[in-house]
Amino acid sequence: MTPEEKFQFDLEGYLIVKNVLTKEEVNRLNAVADEKFVRDYDDPSQDSRGRKGRRQTGRVSAWSLETQALIDHPRIVPYLIELLGPAFRLDHDYCIFMTPGAACGNLHGTPGGHKGSQRKYLYLDGEMLNGLSVVTFFFADAKAGDGGFACIPGSHKTNFGQCVPPEVRRFERVPDYMVQPEVEAGDALIFTEALMHGTMPWKARHERRAFLYKYAPGNLAYSNNFYNIEDYTDPSDQQRRILTPPSAGRRPPVV
């Protein structure tokens, strides 16, 4: 990370990395998604909460060599080492697809609480220390006003997250302290789960397409459904390290 990127992440709790994927990679990954996850938006059972116009499923990292390659994408690994340490691991992953008019996912997050290992952000002795952290890969543009990912910048360090009103959490009112970052297909957005974030209603004319790969320090876990390395095709040694279950002992570093 550059000094300016460190400043921005510490200040706002998220960072957009431009052009992580080429147009060709985006096209291939979109084709994989269409093949592996045929989305029936008329079938509410395809979303665990029955949300209209929203479809979500997990373990996209095992869909193909292209989705597997996102586990340790060379543009992203340096950020994960900086934010989570060289023994980081992939905790879980999934996709979110939304059609025009799709319902939102309420604002959530803020640091601390009983899930402190998940929602953690500290700066100590020259290092940023994070708990569960997310890399969102975008396969469709999200312009200003389109909806999708939204957050309250700086809220990963707030002491008053409980004071955010319910109507703001439901996106019924959007105050000036909330932002919906603009992104393009091929960009990635990295954020800490300590950040207050959620999914605004999708207003664009095209389908929203995003993959979320969620990482944690090597000794922590949020999901208790660990990866089976046999689900992957000839994984590299580095991918094997990243997919291993959590351990409080010494873990081989990612390089």
**Tally of alpha and pi helices:** 6
Kindly give the count of domains.
1
Strand arrangement, major sheet? 1-9-7-11-3-2
Per CATH, which architecture?
Sandwich
What is the fourth-level CATH superfamily?
q2cbj1_9rhob like domain
Name of the level-1 CATH class: Mainly Beta
* SSE series: HEHEHHEEEEEEHEEEH
DSSP E strands, number: 11
Oligomer: single chain
Percent range for β-strand residues: 15-25%
User: Can you summarize the main beta sheet?
Assistant: 6 strands, antiparallel
- Kindly state the percentage of residues in helix: 10-25%
Low-pLDDT windows of residues: none
Task: Enter the CATH topology name.
Answer: Jelly Rolls
Shape: globular
Rg over CA atoms: 18 Å
Q: Can you give the mean pLDDT?
A: 92
The first-to-last residue Cα distance is 15 Å
How is this structure best described in words?
- The structure is a single chain.
- The protein is of the alpha+beta class.
- Helix content is about 20%, strand content about 25%.
- The protein has a 6-stranded antiparallel beta sheet with strand order 1-9-7-11-3-2. Strands 4-10-8 form a 3-stranded antiparallel beta sheet, with no helix packed on it. Strands 5-6 form a two-stranded antiparallel ribbon.
- The longest helix is centred in the N-terminal third of the chain and has 14 residues, at about 25-35.
What's this, in brief?
With 255 residues, the chain is an alpha+beta fold. Helices cover 19% and strands 23% of the residues.
